[in-house]
Design brief:
CATH architecture of one domain: Ribbon
Largest sheet: 8 strands, antiparallel
CATH topology of one domain: Umud Fragment, subunit A
Helix content: 25-40%
CATH superfamily of one domain: Umud Fragment, subunit A
Number of helices: 2
Structural class: alpha+beta
Radius of gyration: 38 Å
Number of strands: 12
Shape: rod-shaped
Length: about 210
């Protein structure tokens, strides 16, 4: 009898403790306001992660496209030296398009002596180029109009004038004639097709000079 009574008291005690736990449980539950705040934080975190993933994906795509364009279509170049003043100055950043056919006055990018140079297209294969002491340039006997020059100069000439451009090559000059080393000199000479990178289209830096280049 005493054993059953003790057992009954034990069950009663456990029941009372369970009731106490249930009474305390509501105190540990979040309020409706806390739930709303937590839900809002979770939604914001989810939106942030989506935005972050979207931004990363966009940057990867833009970088891939930029590399593809730079490699295949439009090399981006930084100008060094003063041989193309005043058209291009040191520090300018320009974009070129790959091509091998040019018109008079185009700005040509090409490899020479392990360097990348920029000069202006003057004459093509078979044409005759001549210069006088004042720096006037003649192509096939006609004076070349050069509004892009700040001043004319005979410059460094180590070839015999008049000069006929060889087949498969082009004759180029820098705009700063007094300092430019170009097709007038055997150091550079006429440019072969396999040397050509392309034609400069426009300047992207500095921002004050942003736009097409002529």
């Amino acid at each position: 009898m005493n054993g059953e009574k003790a057992k009954w008291h034990g069950h009663l005690k456990q029941g009372k403790e369970a009731v106490k736990k249930r009474q305390k449980l509501p105190e540990t539950l979040p309020t409706a306001k806390q739930l709303r705040l937590e839900l809002k934080r979770e939604r914001e975190r989810h939106r942030y992660m989506q935005l972050l993933r979207s931004t990363i994906c966009s940057l990867v795509v833009v970088a891939a496209v930029a590399v593809l364009i730079t490699t295949l279509l439009s090399p981006v170049l930084r100008i060094y030296g003063s041989s193309m003043n005043p058209t291009l100055t040191e520090g300018d950043v320009v974009v070129a398009v790959k091509k091998t056919e040019f018109e008079k006055g185009d700005l040509v990018v090409f490899h020479a002596s392990n360097k990348i140079l920029v000069k202006r297209y003057i004459a093509g294969p078979g044409q005759w180029v001549d210069m006088d002491e004042a720096g006037n340039v003649y192509v096939d006997g006609r004076l070349l109009e050069e509004p892009y020059l700040a001043e004319k100069a005979y410059g460094e000439v180590t070839i015999s004038m008049p000069y006929q451009v060889p087949d498969g090559r082009i004759f180029v000059l820098g705009d700063h004639r007094s300092v430019s080393v170009d097709s007038r000199s055997t150091t550079v000479g006429c440019v072969a097709e396999e040397q050509i990178v392309g034609k400069i289209l426009f300047r992207i830096w500095p921002l004050s000079g942003l736009g097409t280049v002529h």
